[in-house]
Amino acid sequence: MPTHTYEYPKKHHQAFDRIKAKLFGYVKEREVVENAYPKSDTSDNARYARAMHAFANAKPKDGIAEMQALLKKYPNDIYYLDSYAVLLYQAKKYQQSADVYAKILKTDKKTALFYIEYARALLEVGNKKSLADAEWALYKAKFLENFEPYIYQTMVQLYRITKKQRKIVFGRGRICVLVTTTHRNGVGGTSQGYFTRWLPRTHTGG
Predict the structure, then answer these.
(1) What is the pLDDT at residue 15?
(2) Left, alpha or beta for 57 (phi > 0: left; psi -120 to 50: alpha)?
(3) Sign of the CA dihedral 140, 144, 146, 148?
(4) Is residue 12 pLDDT above 90, yes or no?
(5) In this structure, are residues 145 and 155 in contact, taking their beta carbons and an 8 Å threshold?
(6) Where does the pLDDT of residue 4 fall: very low under 50, low under 70, confident under 90, or very high at 90 and above?
(7) Phi, psi for residue 186 in degrees, rounded to 5
(8) pLDDT of residue 206
(9) Spatial contact of 71 and 77, defined as CB atoms under 8 Å apart
(10) CA–CA dist 25, 43 (Å, integer)
């Protein structure tokens, strides 16, 4: 019987090679990465692998340099921009990270994770405007992926900072309430804490 072999478009092969390089750099030991992608190799995949290796080993400065070189060639590549923003966040350059995510969201308005990461960077910026923008971004993410726990985790972080108590509707059946508590701290005083409590959606309490 005749066989049929499907040839994938070149762009798919390129995307697969990029993913392999990214994962290789992230999980392999330094010697292995350096042998496979020495600094003399300035190909796209080599730079990406070295950038992800730098991220995995908490050396964001090295990774940022590699990503900047890639973004000179591909200034609007969403995946490179995302990795660049992650490295900026790791380097505690929170406003720059948020600015990169804002650029991504001008192109991709349907990926909840980008809104969440944008919000996380804004939380670290910590001024009144950035916190308001973070809340907006989280509600955008919630609209896109209502069952994503990462959204609610980040919302709790936001409300800890802003000291708000909010009901956060989760899915069809429950409501997550951020509760403020006051308790003795063991040294003769009191301190406040925050936790989430799940209630039936029909709950009518305050």
Answers:
(1) 87
(2) alpha
(3) negative
(4) no
(5) no
(6) low
(7) 90, -5
(8) 39
(9) yes
(10) 14
